[in-house]
Amino acid sequence: MNSTHATTRSTIHDDVEEILVTGDQIAERVAQLGAQLEADYAGRDPVLVSVLKGSIIFLADLIRAMQSTLSLDLMEVSSYGASTESSGQVRILKDLSRPIEGRDVIVVEDIIDTGLTLNYLLKYLHDKGPASIRVVCLLDKPARRLAEIPIDYRGFTIPDRFVVGYGLDYDERYRNLPYIGVLKPSVYGAASPEG
Ligand code: PRP
Q1: Atom 16, ligand 1: residue with shortest CA distance
Q2: Of residues 15, 104, 110, 113, which has the active-site annotation?
Q3: Would you kindly state where each structural domain of the chain is located, as residue ranges?
Q4: Which CATH class is domain 25-158?
Q5: What are the tens digits of pLDDT across the range 134-181?
């Protein structure tokens, strides 16, 4: 390509106002979390249960930071909508593919915000009779918490700002940003995102 005639292409990075957690910081922390999980679950063959879609990038990096035997399962949930949101009722769109009875379960989440999704999921998973359940999340946003969640492993505690990147979206976009960032207000137009 002739660089003299290269046009300026806009990318997802242009919409970012501020980077809260850099890609290098994420990589370092995920490596630490993986090593910690590997040590804590040595010889226990845990099953990591992750919640689509935001968690997949964290999950992919986390499991590659663990050298021990483990397996994966994926769930997808959606909340019932604004009117019932405070009840924390969620609808399961994709259930576990294998039983978790007697297994050591590690729930992998990208972000815990109100905690309502995980509050529901933890009860749901407990009812399936696992040997244990622990929670690992990349981002903990405690300011908006409505349900108390036992977070066993956390990557970063973040302020009450709407964040995107490394799996997290705004209107399904920006999941492929390699860092955690905050979008420019102009991206939202009149709308102001919750969370
Ligand atoms: C995010 C995140 C958690 C949930 C946390 O998922 O992955 O599942 O929200 O919020 P809460 O603590 O307030 O319940 P989201 O609904 O954005 O779906 P996505 O992962 O497909 O983007």
Answers
A1: 78
A2: 113
A3: 25-158
A4: alpha beta
A5: 999 999 999 999 999 999 999 999 999 999 999 999 999 999 999 999
